[in-house]
Amino acid sequence: MSPRHVILNLFQNLSNDQRSSLQTRTSLYYFQHTYGFGAWIDIENNLGLRKRLRIVGYEELIGMKDYISIDSPIAQALLKKQVGDEVEVKTPATTLTWKIHNIEYQK
Fold this sequence. Notes:
The protein is of the alpha+beta class. It has a domain at 33-104: Transcription elongation factor, GreA/GreB, C-terminal domain (Chitinase A, domain 3). The protein has 3 helices and 5 strands, in the order H-H-E-E-E-H-E-E. The protein has helices at 3-12, 16-32, 73-78, and strands at residues 40-45, 50-56, 67-69, 86-90, 95-104. Strand 4 and strand 5 (95-104) form a beta hairpin. The radius of gyration is 18 Å and the shape is elongated.
């Protein structure tokens, strides 16, 4: 039996409450470890430049140097990525590769 079938059999043997709890925890883990709107992210590009950024709506950008618009090329490339992922961001001037070092949501 493949590992996938073993896991499916285990899941099918859980009660509805246990399944619900497992699905909730899995979703929470994914949410906490995936970059999305409002999260802080630590990234480094292939040139060694490190940044700490937060994706926000355009109305929150005024006076906030570490905030980037959800519509920006880098924000679009980083959405739904996880720690350790690398993304390529193309701008009119150049193409850079960014590696994600940390993701955190404010509590």
